[in-house]
User: What shape does this take?
Amino acid sequence: MKLTRGSSYALHAVAHLGRQKNGDPVASHHIAAGRGIPERFLLKVLRALVSAGVLASVKGPGGGYKFRKPLGDVSLLDVVEAVDGPIGGGSPFNAEGSAAMNARLEVVCRAGTEAVRDLLKGVRVSDLVAGEKGGPPKGKAAGGRRGRGAPPAGAAGR
Assistant: This one.
């Protein structure tokens, strides 16, 4: 899976907000400067997160953005889908190809999409923030499963 620039910026912004100790609102220019994100683009991402109910926008002096709910209740899926829309999957059909092949490809693509959605749903913003502080992220995504093609444990240097 490849994150869009928008969802990457959104994840960096929520990680920045998640590191705030007191939960006070943070101005967009502070988030932009702290994460090296162009503020003009960041504002679009923050608006999407507010619309999705992930963040709240506080107006006036001392205003900015803050979480609407606890970090442990916000998943990476919530953030990514707030910015990019629902993660969908499917196979483009080959009209001249085999209907059976198209159906099999559709099943595989949908299963891949569900696996990605489950993975993102299993990691919370609090896990992302904890990973930034020096430890690996927690949650389902950090379960230690090796992907296909990964060398077996202890195979380094063979």
